TrEMBL record:
Species the sequence originates in: Alistipes hominis
Top-level division of the source organism's lineage: Bacteria
Entry protein name: Noncanonical pyrimidine nucleotidase, YjjG family
Entry coiled-coil feature ranges: none
Classification via NCBIfam families: HAD-SF-IA-v1, HAD-SF-IA-v3, YjjG_YfnB
Length: 230
């Protein structure tokens, strides 16, 4: 088996449980702003948010919207779906959400165990499209920060995954060549294709058994399987 000198990890949905954490954060905001006045069923409200958020993150990844649009538009769209047209409320929700959501600490199963053990064998780096101020908070609050040598955010690199630019930035930060690193992530486009285009091997974390459309060097359905590879 090939020997690597550095492991690059995606954060959201690979280590940090986005769905659970964002749902718990939105529940706090739903209660704080008494959104039940407009949408009695929280799950409906969350569904509207989740749909808008997913689409806007794809647009942010592709450079179609900036971070401010992403932060506010997802709440403008959620509010519009429940019959509320209030840009100031959307802005307040967006600001509160960015402060609140990163403080929740639900992790993907085995995340802490795996990065703790692997950090004793390899230098670990996070490579993420997430906002710098939130990603550092997430890592520190959930106890993973101490295991990583560095965190590479798209804002610092000047490009989002899957651009080779951010991967090149990460390799320089780690002081390794493309053939000495491997990227571990859940997203076939941003993590796997992005790594491949940068000449980096990859591990596709595929917990839901999705059909593979993009070739990865390795594939795992649980993070614990990484300990058998590395």
């Amino acid at each position: 088996m090939k020997r690597y000198d550095c492991l690059l990890f995606d954060l959201d949905r690979t280590l940090w449980d986005v769905e659970r954490n964002q749902k718990e954060a939105l529940r706090v905001l739903y209660d704080r702003y008494r959104l039940e006045r407009f949408c009695p069923d929280f799950d409906d409200c969350f569904g509207y948010y989740e749909t808008s958020n997913a689409r806007l993150w794809e647009e942010y990844r592709d450079g179609k919207v900036n971070r401010e649009t992403l932060r506010n538009a997802r709440f403008e769209e959620m509010l519009a779906a429940i019959g509320v047209y209030d840009t100031e409320l959307a802005r307040r929700l967006g600001d509160d959400y960015v402060r609140l959501a990163p403080t929740f600490t639900n992790l993907i199963p085995y995340a802490e165990k795996v990065v703790r053990e692997l950090s004793g064998r390899y230098p670990l780096y996070v490579v993420t499209n997430g906002f710098r101020e939130t990603q550092y908070i997430k890592l520190k609050e959930c106890g993973l920060y101490r295991y990583f040598r560095g965190v590479v955010c798209s804002e610092e690199a000047g490009a989002n995954k899957p651009s080779p630019v951010i991967f090149g930035y990460a390799l320089r930060a780690a002081g390794v060549g493309a053939d000495e690193a491997v990227m571990i992530g859940d997203d076939p486009q941003t993590d796997i294709l992005g790594a491949s285009n940068a000449g980096i091997d990859s591990v596709w974390f595929n917990p839901f058994g999705e059909v593979r459309e993009i070739d990865a060097t390795y594939e795992v359905s649980a993070l614990s399987e990484l300990l058998g590879i590395f």
